[in-house]
Amino acid sequence: MNFDIAMERLKSEGFKRTPSREAILRLLEREDRYLSAGDVRKALADEHPKMSQDTVYRNLSSFSEMKILEETELGGERKFRMHCDRHGHHHHFICMECGRTEELDVCPMEQVSRALPSFVIDDHKFEVYGQCPDCRTAG
């Protein structure tokens, strides 16, 4: 998802266009990786010194509910990134160091369905965690 589409979705959901919302969405579009509310607040502190941590967190949560952002938990902390533009079913590799993501075209659900033949599976989420090549060589 890009900034313009995200702003249109906000408008259609009855949210006002504010400098804080614009800044958060522009940052997430630019970064293209998972960030925590603290990461977002820190990145925007110079440009928006009066933006509170609560404002950041509330907006991130709202954006996630509207499917503007994707959300995951890394190291016990909620993290967010812009929703993928890619259509079709896929999953992600997520770098535990920098939050970078890579799309995966594989899905283990066929194997899971075979292992649980009498169960009805309503949904799933599959993420692979590790270190990206840049973080691995930097360490």
TrEMBL record:
One GO CC term, this protein: cytoplasm
Binding residue positions for Zn(2+): C95, C98, C132, C135
Annotated cofactor note: Binds 1 zinc ion per subunit. Binds 1 Mn(2+) or Fe(2+) ion per subunit.
Cofactor(s) for this UniProt protein: Zn(2+); Mn(2+); Fe(2+)
Listed GO biological process terms: negative regulation of DNA-templated transcription; regulation of secondary metabolite biosynthetic process
InterPro entries: FUR, Fur_C, WH-like_DNA-bd_sf, WH_DNA-bd_sf
Annotated GO MF terms: DNA-binding transcription factor activity; transcription cis-regulatory region binding; zinc ion binding
Annotated keywords: Cytoplasm, DNA-binding, Iron, Metal-binding, Repressor, Transcription, Transcription regulation, Zinc
Localization per record: Cytoplasm
Keyword Cell membrane: no
Residues bound to Fe cation: H89, E110, H124
Protein family per UniProt: Belongs to the Fur family.
Protein name: Zinc-specific metallo-regulatory protein
Organism the protein comes from: Bhargavaea cecembensis DSE10
Gene: zur
